[in-house]
Design a protein that fits this description.
7 strands; 7-stranded mixed beta sheet; Rossmann fold; single chain
Amino acid sequence: MNGWRHKGLLILAALLPVLLGAPAHGQTPSPSLDARVAAFLEDNRHRWNALNVPYEDGKILHELVLTNRFRTILEIGTSTGHSTIWLAWAAAKTGGKVTTIEIDPGRHTIALEHFRRAGVEAFIDARLADAHDLVRRLPGPFDFVFTDADKEWYPNYFKDLDAKISVGGCYTAHNTLRVYAREVREFLDYVRSRPNYRTRIERGSGEGISVSCKTAP
């Protein structure tokens, strides 16, 4: 009898995450989480400042991660967390997690509160750090990278991460339709010259997101 009781407890423990609505590994999160994130993003749609991506670009990031089932996600430039929430929402459905880096303590603190209110904090590893230094030290591999930080460092971020991006993974960067910016042109010229990447630009809000997907080591 004790043996059966023990087995029953083990089965119940295994079922608890499902019964409580927690997403299983790689599965769609509970309807309550989906509703909570969607409501948060819609309610705050017009409240993000200029350092965050527009709503339309957040949707593009979400779809890129979801469609390709990306799981190891790196974001350079959290700001106050709009793009991070879109990425983490997708990661909740793929069984993944987002590592995001922000250098400004004030923006980092606000972002943490936004993650909590949106309900996605469990899918985010938020780092308060200088990305110039930290990106070089992160071990990887990553199958999705989103960069929305200092434009003059775009080529350096890519070079530091190139070897850490999985084949089939994608490196994306924001504001890449700002072709008048020398730093953006230099970044695009460099990544387009790489024979093992295929690059396109998603227009989205009009700011542009370059999507460079790795085809070979």
